[in-house]
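Recall the central idea of this unit: under ordinary conditions, the amino acid sequence of a chain determines the structure it adopts. In this exercise we apply that idea directly, starting from the sequence alone.
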Amino acid sequence: MWLDFILLLDATLRTATPLVFAAMAGIFAERSGVIDFGLEGKMLGGAFIAACVAHWTQSAWLGLFGAMTVGVVFSMMHGFASVTKRGNQVVSCVAINIFAIGLTTVLGIAWFQRGGKTPQLPADARFLPIELPFAAELRGIPILGEVYSELISGHNILVYLAFLMVPLTAWVVFKSRFGLRLRATGENPLAVDTAGISVNRIRYQALVINGMIGGMSGAYLSTAQVAFFVKDMSAGKGYLALAAMIFGKWRPYPAMFACLLFAFAEALESRLQGVPIPGIGVVPVQLIQSLPYILTVVLLAGFVGKAVAPAAIGQPFVKEH
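Accordingly, the structure predicted from this sequence is:
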């Protein structure tokens, strides 16, 4: 049972990785005052481009760069509509998500003629698990050895990068000069403008970071978790990441723990399918698959408390003359 629990936690870390990336991306955008429901679209677009570029170049790292690039492009589209043109930010995000769903399907069919699926990537063109030093030697040691060799070691580089992104995001947002300006822009953009700082520039800088990290979440799906892209493979993970960010009250560490909680439910779901539960029997697969989303609704409705968003979020800034 102990080993099964370790393997469940191991699956939780892998499943949480795209959620953590996307939640950190959302924090940068929304702390600057820009709503970002478009995490789903950036994740989906990043997954598609990463798989395509990795297939064409046989390089997972170039695929990752391609995913980050398309994430930035989507963020700049959102920035142009909502920051420069001061359009409705929610509508812009919805448009990006719909655009990503349609574009990845059409291009996938046009380029590969596989119903929207990309070709299987060889081992050299994807991110493979990394065995940390002494993992094999410590595997036989009870508890600590198993935790190190099975839970900590054996993940691909993007898993480690995702969880390193959390303290990095916390430092940038709450300790750096840029982070101070970022948070001030999301709370009181008029005061920022009065201090001689461009509100739009800060928001565009936040969206560039947002797009890069959001693209990384998609690259993980198609070049690390699996070795190909399939239609709609993000499957609502961008919305789960958004829920985790809100559950974490726009703070990196609480958002990460929310991502881990949702990922644990998803990892548990895959292990409960077809397994009879005493006194209940075999639970329908559809109910098991809905567990992460039911958990999201329950947590946000009853346990998150009062989540206070940045005061100026969603409000276009009009410079006073």
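The two ends are 67 Å apart (CA to CA).
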